[in-house]
Design a protein that fits this description.
The protein has 308 residues and is mostly helical. It is 66% helix and 2% strand. It is built from 7 helices and 2 strands; from the N terminus they run αααααββαα. It has a two-stranded antiparallel sheet. The longest helix is centred in the N-terminal third of the chain and has 65 residues. It starts with a helix and ends with a helix.
């Protein structure tokens, strides 16, 4: 059925339809990677316990907690990508709604050309030429709506995408650095047969490293260059409104770009087209996420023993 929907897409929206579909597969891969990373972290903890080495057991368990949180960041990233994908759909829907306007204009032009070739004296030519004027005016409105929504939503979508990429990267880097701190607590000095390893003396430090990681995640804030938009004054008809102002938008917060999620209407009345045509003559040209700030200590085998 998905393939059939792709075939049925208007020509204008086919490429973006394919991109959105591909993103859906990529998002699923990130979700799968996150789940597998969490499962591997649990396996690391189980293996460490089975070694009967207290030092390895403690360190591997806490490494598992950090790695599990790294996996959770993949899931958060996937959710943010789904939001970005939803914004792209608004462009696709607008493209789909503009296609009938283009087709209608082309169809009338073709009919006029055929009549002029076969029946150059036909009175129907005058009627069709009048209809073509209306169709062109309607199409001007539709094309303006399309370019307005495309530029606005493209900036908004990839603002969200890149902000999500930065968030995942910075949080995973943060967790990885604390993981490296844990590794330095494990003594790997070689011993000779018969010697016993000294007892693990860094349990408190290991526990503090997890606390530090949890606090760093909780206090993490995005530090992003604002994406400026001049589309905040666009009206619900996808046309410029009065008093448009430039306003920055940073993904992760409420978007400052006012918009109507509904696509441009595929049918524009003849009177709207005439009005737009007259306006063109009278007016000057128009210038061209889920928070993952807390580490789940319940996942750690040492959660209960640490607390006592």
């Amino acid at each position: 059925m998905a393939s059939l929907r792709g075939i049925q897409q208007p020509e204008l929206s086919k490429k973006l339809f394919k991109l959105i579909k591909s993103e859906n597969h990529a998002i699923g891969s990130y979700e799968t990677a996150g789940r597998e990373r969490i499962a591997i972290a649990s396996q690391l903890s189980d293996w460490g316990e089975a070694t009967n080495d207290d030092s390895i057991s403690d360190i591997s368990d806490k490494l598992g907690v950090l790695l599990s949180e790294i996996g959770e960041q993949e899931d958060v990233f996937a959710q943010n990508l789904e939001d970005y994908r939803s914004v792209l759909k608004q462009i696709r829907n607008t493209e789909s709604s503009v296609q009938p306007s283009r087709d209608h204009k082309s169809k009338i032009a073709d009919e006029i050309a055929k009549l002029k070739h076969k029946e150059p004296q036909s009175t129907k030519i005058v009627t069709l030429e009048q209809e073509l004027v209306r169709a062109e005016a309607q199409n001007l409105v539709a094309e303006a709506q399309l370019t307005n929504i495309t530029r606005q939503k493209l900036k908004q979508a990839y603002d969200m995408h890149f902000a999500a990429t930065i968030e995942r990267a910075e949080k995973q880097i943060l967790l990885a650095r604390h993981g490296r701190r844990l590794l330095n607590l494990l003594d790997d000095t070689p011993i000779v047969p018969g010697d016993a390893r000294p007892a693990f003396e860094h349990a408190d430090q290991a526990r503090q490293i997890l606390n530090d990681a949890e606090e760093d995640l909780r206090e993490w804030q995005p530090n992003l260059e604002p994406i400026h938009s001049q589309a905040s004054g666009m009206g619900s008809n996808l046309m410029p409104g009065e008093g448009s102002t430039v306003a920055p938008s940073v993904a992760g917060g409420e978007s400052v770009m006012a918009h109507d999620d509904s696509p441009a209407q595929s049918r524009i009345t003849a009177s709207e087209g005439q009005h737009f045509q007259q306006a063109q003559l009278d007016a000057p040209p128009v210038p061209q996420h889920a928070q993952a700030g807390e580490i789940n200590f319940a996942d750690s085998q040492y959660a209960h023993s640490d607390a006592t």
